[in-house]
Amino acid sequence: MPKLDTQYLIKRGKIWWVTKRVAGKKRSESLRTKDHSEAVERRDAWLRELKKHEDKVDKARTFKKLRAEYLRASDEGKDIIEDIVADEANDIAYDLGVYEAYNSPSPKEILTAKEKKPKQHYEKSLGRLHVFADWVDEFAEAASSRDENMARRRAMQVLMKDFTCLEEMTWEKAAIFLEEVGKREGVSKATVSRWKGNYSNFWRYLKKNSKAIWSGHTIPKTEPTKERTIYNYQQIGLIVKTLKEANNTVSNWLLNVVMIALHTGARRGAIALMEYNHADKTILFPKLKTEKWDRIIPAHEAIINNCIDWQADRRSKSSITEEFKKLRDKLGFDRKHYDFHTLRHTFSTEMKRLQVDEIITADIMGHSIKTMTYGVYGHGTEVDAMKEAIDKIHYPIEKYL
Questions:
Q1: What domains can be seen in the chain, in order of their start residue?
Q2: pTM for this structure?
C-alpha cells in the first residue's frame, strides 16, 4: 500500500491542516476537508501562494539592499552597479521575448505592459531614487523663519535615522514611525503632531516643485473644519452669576478675566500681560509667539472696572487656566468642547453676528485672516473703527443672573 503524502500535513480531529515554518514562525491553516487527496491539492495550492509571497519578500529585500549599496558607492561603484542592473533588465527583456522592443528608441508610452517590465526593473533599482538628504536643506531654507527652518530640519532628521530614500516611505509608515520615535524620546503629542505636519509640508513642497513624486504616497485630506463651540448667553450668564455669588479673591479676579475675554477676544497669555491705559481707555496686548505685532484696542465701557481691578491684581496665564478649568468642571460643561479659549470663539462669533467687518475683528483679536474675498490681511484698522465695532457688543445675560 503506497505511503500517504503527508508533507506539511497534520490531522486535527478528522480535519487536515497544513503547517510550515516561515521566517522562523510556524504557520498553520485548516484545509477544511477530511479527504486526503483533496487536502494534498489544497496544500499544494497553499504552498504555491506562499512561494509567491516569499519571492516578493526576497525581491523587496534585494531591492532595498541594492539601493543602500548604490547610495553608499563611489562614482565608479555606481557605474558598476548600474551596468549590473542594466544587464538584469536585458535578461528580463530576453526572457519575456521583448528584447528588441525594450532596446529600441520607441517612446516608453507606446510599450506594452510586458515591454515595460525591464524598464520598470531598472527604474525601481536605481533610476527613481530620491535621497532624503538631497532635499532637506532646500526644504528647510524655504521656511519663512529661523524657528520654522529648525523645526523642518528636526522632523526630517528623525525620519532619516531609519530611512534613506523617499521611495521607502509612505504617509502611513511616516506617521507610525514618528509616533514610535515620540514615545521612545518621551516628547509630547504636540511635538509629534508638528513632526507629522512638517513631513506633510515636505512632501507637498517636493510635489509643488516637481522634485519627486512617487506612487502610493498620498497625504490624507484635511477633515472639514467643524463648527466651533461657543458659550451661549445662558452659559455666559451662569459663569458670571457663579463668580459674582462666590465673591472671593479668586472668583473676583477670574470674573475680571472672563469679562475682558468676552469683550476683546484676547487669549489667556495676552490678558495676563495686558496693560490698561485709563486716560485713553485702551488696552495694550503684547505680541505673543503666535501673533505678529503688539496691538492697542479700545476698552468696552462694560469692562473698564474689570481692567482697572485686573491691572491692580493680576495673575499668571497658568493660574487663569487652572482656575477656569475648576469653574468649568463645577458648572458641568463638557471638557472636550468647553475651555477658556471658547470665550475667544464666543467673541468672534458675536462679532460676526453683529456683522462687523472681519478685517476689523481680525485686528482686534490679533490674527491674520484668509478668506476668498479678502485674501490675507493684518495690522491697520483705526482705533475709532475698532471702538465702533466693540461698542456694539452686548451679551443679553441679565435674565440669567
A1: 9-127 (no CATH), 132-208 (no CATH), 233-400 (1.10.443.10)
A2: 0.48
